[in-house]
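Worked example 4.2. Below are the chains of a multi-component assembly; read each line carefully before continuing.
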Amino acid sequence: MDISFKQVSHTYQVNSPFEYHALKSLDFDIKSGQFVAIVGHTGSGKSTLIQHLNGLLKPTSGEVVIGDYRLKADEKTANIKGLREKVGVVFQYPEHQLFEETIEKDIAFGPKNFGASDETIQARIPKILEAVNLDVALLNRSPFDLSGGQMRRVAIAGVLAMEPDVLVLDEPTAGLDPRGQQEIMDMFYKLHHEKGLTTILVTHSMEDALKYADHVIILEQGKKYLEGKPEDIFVQQARLKQVQLDVPEEIQFLMDLEKRLGMTIHYEKQSVDDLADTIKHRLGGGQ
Amino acid sequence: MTTEQVIFNNVSFRYAEDQPWVLKNVNFSIKQDEWVAILGHNGSGKSTIAKLMNGLLFPDEGEIYVHGIKVTPDTVWDVREKVGMVFQNPDNQFVGTTVRDDVAFGLENRGIDRNIMIKRIEESLLSVRMTDYLLHEPHRLSGGQKQRVAIAGVLAIQPNLIILDEATAMLDPRGRKEIMTTVNDLRRETKVNLVSITHDLNEITGADRVIVMNDGEVWLETVPRELFKQETALRQIGLDVPFTAKLANRLQTDFEFSQQPLTQKELLDQLWTFHSNK
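Applying the procedure described above to all two chains together yields the following structure tokens:
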């Protein structure tokens, strides 16, 4: 589904002493099938933005268009339930939202609420478990008996069970160890391609944004600060520094390499193996 | 007084009798003035170690000594005088309505004289560079600032040992950097023992020693520089080395580095020598 933000502003507690402008005239387009990373500091407006993607919040001015759905101030959105079925949101620490007696019931809760029949849900479950790499034998266990990483997979399975077209991920790897982080991100990346999803990843990790996204939007104090391809955005060290963001460590290294050794290597998402080979070659292969 | 601040002697622990062992025969000691990082994947037992160190849990087998005191239900209050702890979630550890009140809380609990209290609050907030926020409300601070205030609250008690139990896990990169700077400052300016618990190898470069946990057992005790060479083995236990170490390990097949580089700067320094000798 195509997503479009047109001059979207959101102000909390309008006309009160606590009035707070979280989003300010935000304008951007996301094409169906894109993998977009939204990057910004705590307080830059990322969470407010996310809540506009499935109608938990509406703009106080401007409009958000998601496929056939439109969110606009003072206008009732037609069939907002349909929108929430299409846009799956994995919130931060989603395992905190588990509540059912068994893993199976927890996964089924979402689609059931949207009116899916038991047969449909039962048919979906094995495929979803495979996607999130959970054993079918766990289905009748309590989700609270699982490790943190497994609980997160169950929570994600509950979102996938609705078969959304758009997947919104809010810091999906927070708190996981390196292996857990990579497994979860690789899983989302695979799903993105296999199911032709539109994926929106909210992250603090410049490295993940660079690795997975084909488009990056940087937010600063509720405004769009930069937008473009990750390999174009993340080389703009000075501009990123202005808003106290770092360039990803690979790119930082290549910049310093150029400064110290006068060796220019362009970043083209090459692997660390390839990078090492290039450096070896340029340095004449050492001894 | 012994120079071993913490001793784990054949410690085993499980949460219930029908549950698997979380820690199995764990042995290690931490010396005076050391900063030790405890590293491990989710569920490796590293946080259980922290909870055993200040008597939030007690071992099923073996003994733990903190500053010469054996940790038991009877000595737990003496132990907690020696051990301060900073937890993962910055929002779960505030009691005061201002930064000053919050740092004062532990001191008030111990009935410390008001004049000393004022001095200690001032000193500990200075150590974490939060003096300008004395009358701010803690919940309005950023994540990094909140954790710095939590550290100040612990410092004010003047413990021998501070445990940071994944204190950066819920922070953004800026907050993480703030905490690592604070920890490095403390390391330089005070004599307090530090134990930092993490799964992020970027955070251990300043530590004197690393204890790596895997499935409830001590997998390796080493120094950061040595650990960074163990890329393949670390990956097998769910951990990963930083980009700099990965690149260095691949370059090492052709270039003989005088030592394993810990930071990008160290790696560039080494490469520069090869470059200039060409």
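Take a moment to check your reading of the output against the notes. The mean pLDDT of chain A is 92. The longest helix of chain A spans residues 178-194.
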